[in-house]
Amino acid sequence: MTREDILSGFDPNAASSPDAGLFGLPFAAEQASVIVVPVAWEATVSFGSGASLGPAAILQASTQVDLRHHDYPDAWKRGFYLDTFPDEMAELARSAKKLARGVIEHIQRGGSIRPGSEQDRALHEVNAACARMNEWVYRRCEYWKNRGKTVGLLGGDHSIPLGYLRLLAERRDGFGILHVDAHHDLRAAYEGFTWSHASIFYNALSTLTGISKLVQVGVRDYCDQEFSYARARSSRITVYYDRDVRRRLYRGENWDGLCREITSRLPGAVHISIDIDGLEPWLCPSTGTPVPGGLAYEEMIFLLDTLKNSGREIIGFDLCEVAPGPDGWDANTGARVLFHLCSLAAEAASGTASS
After folding, report:
1. Does 355 reside within a domain?
2. How many folded domains does the chain comprise?
3. I want to staple 318 with a disulfide (CB 3.0 to 4.6 A). Which of 53, 153, 187, 283 is the partner?
């Protein structure tokens, strides 16, 4: 059955059926232009947890998202589909998280990791599990890319994109990353974990020469090592610290001009990486490490639209660190950010512009 066949029998104004797919859409994978790969993984989280539950919570909340996008009203017709995270990987995620928790608690009590100790063995097992997850993400994204799909990732913690970034780096002469986050994520092997969520861009820049530029927006909580690392690599990393951006706005600059400046730092092909804590914390109160400050929802949407309307190619995206809270608000925010990312990617792939 073709996408057109599906559309002819679908009412976008009706309530979603209980067995509907992502955003209540009826598309199978072969009919969808955008595939979202869920990665329910949070092995190395060091503060709040729950990000591994994000994909399921966002799926549930997505059925309440109305399909007429304000800027891209027909984007959904190109088809969005949520892939599956295998039971085998989910079990590995639970095992790795349990082992990592023991290591983290030991460190927080002031203990050291002695070679050959129980904690040292656990640390190596967690690192091996995370490496296996990275490989699974690489292979799954490769599978969908080989079928002509635009691929996005849905976490899980922010360690999950490395495998996808490796795939993109192998297929591109060079690309940039627009990174919205409260944190740099430039720590080296945080708490001993090689593939920590706090180390994603340290690992990506250290191992993938295909990443020509990292532009970070919203950063407001970081350590000296990260600050020094970014400054020493200023030709490759540009940071728009949240406080500096606010000062510029308070002194009379406008967000449109800043967004144009931000996107001008990026090359022609761009991967979008969003940690939900890049937003104001009232939008994501249950995320693992919420920080005061951050972007308003519409500020981030405007930034993403500015990127798309600049003519740059959006080659992929990831959305991470959405942890469901008791009132469903985090999942509600996450579902709408994901809908915008999917719509943006679908429109960009079709070459459609917006005002």
Report:
1. no
2. 1
3. 153
